[in-house]
Amino acid sequence: MADRVGWGIVGYGWVARDYMAPGIRAAGHRLVAICDPGEASRRAAEAEGARAHADLAGLLAEPEVEAVYVATPNHLHRGAVEVLSAAGKAVLCEKPMAASLADAEAMAAAVRGSGIFYGTAFDQRHHPGHRAMRAAIEAGRLGTVTAVRIVYACWLDRAWTSFQGQDNWRIDPAQAGGGALIDLAPHGLDLVDFLVGDSVTDIAALTQAKAQDYAVDDGALLVGRTGSGVLASLHVAYNCPDILPRRRLEVLGTRGQLTAIDTMGQVAGGSVTFTDGVTGAVEALPFDLQASPFLEQVRAFGSALRRPEERAAYSAERDLHTMRLIARAYGHAGARAA
Ligand SMILES: NC(=O)c1ccc[n+]([C@@H]2O[C@H](COP(=O)([O-])OP(=O)(O)OC[C@H]3O[C@@H](n4cnc5c(N)ncnc54)[C@H](O)[C@@H]3O)[C@@H](O)[C@H]2O)c1
């Protein structure tokens, strides 16, 4: 039986329209209302049966909204989360948590002060393939886990747009907070935590501005180590043609390796294999190929909203730590460009 949560959305752009709204529907929840200053975004929401407001005050006045998904450009996450915290709403805020570490610190303080239920929308935690990987690791199939290796890349040029006429804020340092590194690496750093149950504590990185003609980094290599000594490597990029192999996640242990291909992202599917460290035999790991990470994310957040004992899986402090890692990877706390 679905928990049928009443959702509001702040920022009804690409990710909200194409992934979150379908996830809300598929979970049997209800999109009550959105707010967005963009006329086209409001019309799109109304076509889905939601009420549309030009500002957050209108959304807050909707009594049926229990949980709010924040999906504005990064620099606007802070203002929305502060207002929603003060109003006592449950919040699921898109990644990166904010465009700057200072904003993320203010958001964590607002969440702490208000005691609201807050989660950052790390949908990839909820990909059924990644859940199957974590279960295999917990069952000891890899032996001692030694390393996580991630490639997560795409093509994002100056002209890239999610919808016709939509601003490409991702290449503006002030709105995005950085480039490929701040956009894509939080997913990988969070997945390391999710898969091996241990956060990255040491980090170093190199960025590049090599193939695109804008002010933010178009690629980065990060190396990290968790508190228990698991090594992590991440290659993230905005300069990799989408047709090339570009989404790969490997977890290596003393008894075997898990390899996920095309699971990182917003959609269902991809593949996960286990390679035995003694025989070399390769076996497919079964998981639900139909359920998208956004559907599963909606189900999990709604379930935790109804059952507070499940909220331990969410932590604004953990997400703030991820933002600290991003700031350190850029070389200083407020880093913006390559
Ligand atoms: N988890 C994922 O896989 C994933 C994927 C894409 C984007 N994202 C994140 O989601 C967020 C949105 O990204 P996008 O690609 O959907 O952007 P987008 O540009 O397509 O949409 C942003 C929307 O926010 C609206 N907006 C601007 N100012 C606003 C305000 N003050 N109040 C309310 N709405 C406002 C815009 O009009 C637009 O409709 C970003 O933080 C991004 O990093 C996450």
TrEMBL record:
Superkingdom assignment: Bacteria
Oxidoreductase listed as a keyword: yes
Alphabetized UniProt keyword annotations: Oxidoreductase
Pfam family of the protein (one): GFO_IDH_MocA_C3
Residues of the GFO/IDH/MocA-like oxidoreductase domain: 130-258
Domain Gfo/Idh/MocA-like oxidoreductase N-terminal: residue ranges: 6-115
Gene Ontology MF annotations: nucleotide binding; oxidoreductase activity
Keyword presence, Nucleotide-binding: no
The protein, known as: Gfo/Idh/MocA family oxidoreductase
Organism in which the protein naturally occurs: Methylobacterium soli
Organismal lineage: Bacteria, Pseudomonadati, Pseudomonadota, Alphaproteobacteria, Hyphomicrobiales
